[in-house]
Write a structure and sequence with these properties.
- This protein has a 6-stranded parallel beta sheet with strand order 3-2-1-4-5-6, with helices on both faces.
- Helices cover 48% and strands 10% of the residues.
- With 234 residues, it is of the alpha/beta class.
- The longest helix has 17 residues.
- The chain has 2 domains: 141 residues, Rossmann fold (3-Layer(aba) Sandwich), CATH 3.40.50; 86 residues, Orthogonal Bundle (DNA polymerase, domain 1), CATH 1.10.150.
- The model has no long low-confidence stretch (mean pLDDT 94).
- It is built from 10 helices and 6 strands, in the order βααααααβαβααβαββ.
Length: 234
């Protein structure tokens, strides 16, 4: 690769969002779900999102609140939780969000990669399928405020793999897509979407964190098992 800039996903790339969800869902299970619900099954159900509500949100088809509410309702249906009307859901969501934020932490290799990019003079920034201001808050809470948030799902009303979000990230870094790598944990949305938009797509496939349905890296992309693996391709 001829890489002059790097765009980064945030959730499960720079920030251990899976761990934060696990922290929040353990509290949800204790308070709402049937006794004996397996925490790992609860986490897997939430992350798998079989109905695709979060991706519908990133396509601009529903609000963030609506997608999370639908996922919560399906979670309760699967594990014996009570019905959530609007009022009950607002209470549920306030607790979930509080516990979710308690669990926000950067991966150990995140700062190490940024240090190396800084040392090499390679510009970088974040492109995410979550709201811009929310991700700014998350980066700061995890000690990653040096990562400029460039594009969120609210920038165009849609998220990855729409080519516009990748191209806009490049524009804001003042670099061409052809010399920019995009690194993320979703092989189709991140690596595949970036490749289709003319960037170098890099799938971050951390050991033990792969979601159901993820297979091999899409054609034309590369797979790394940790963020520092990107350095081998610079």
């Amino acid at each position: 690769m001829a890489i002059e800039a790097v765009l980064l996903d945030i959730d499960d790339t720079l920030v251990d969002t899976r761990g934060a969800f696990r922290h929040a869902l353990l509290r949800v299970a204790d308070e709402y779900l049937d006794a004996g619900a397996d925490p790992e099954e609860v986490l897997a159900h939430w992350r798998e999102d079989r109905s695709g509500w979060y991706r519908a949100h990133t396509r601009g088809e529903m609000t963030h609140r609506e997608q999370r509410k639908r996922r919560a309702i399906e979670l309760h249906a699967a594990f014996g939780g009570p019905h959530l009307d609007d009022e009950a859901y607002d209470i549920w969501d306030a607790g979930f969000e509080r516990h979710f934020r308690e669990g926000w932490h950067a991966f150990e290799d995140s700062a190490a990669l940024l240090d190396e990019l800084d040392a090499r003079g390679i510009p970088y920034g974040a492109v995410s399928n979550a709201d811009f201001n929310y991700q700014v808050l998350k980066l700061a809470a995890c000690g990653l405020q040096r990562v400029p948030m460039l594009v969120g799902v609210d920038t165009f009303g849609v998220g990855k793999p729409d080519a516009r979000v990748f191209v806009e990230g490049c524009r804001l870094l003042a670099v061409e897509p052809a010399v920019t790598a995009y690194v993320g944990d979703e092989p189709d949305l991140d690596a595949g979407g970036a490749h289709a938009a003319g960037l170098h797509g890099v799938w971050l496939d951390r050991p033990g964190t792969r979601r159901a349905g993820h297979g091999e890296a899409p054609a034309g992309t590369v797979r790394i098992s940790g963020l520092l693996g990107l350095l081998d391709h610079l």
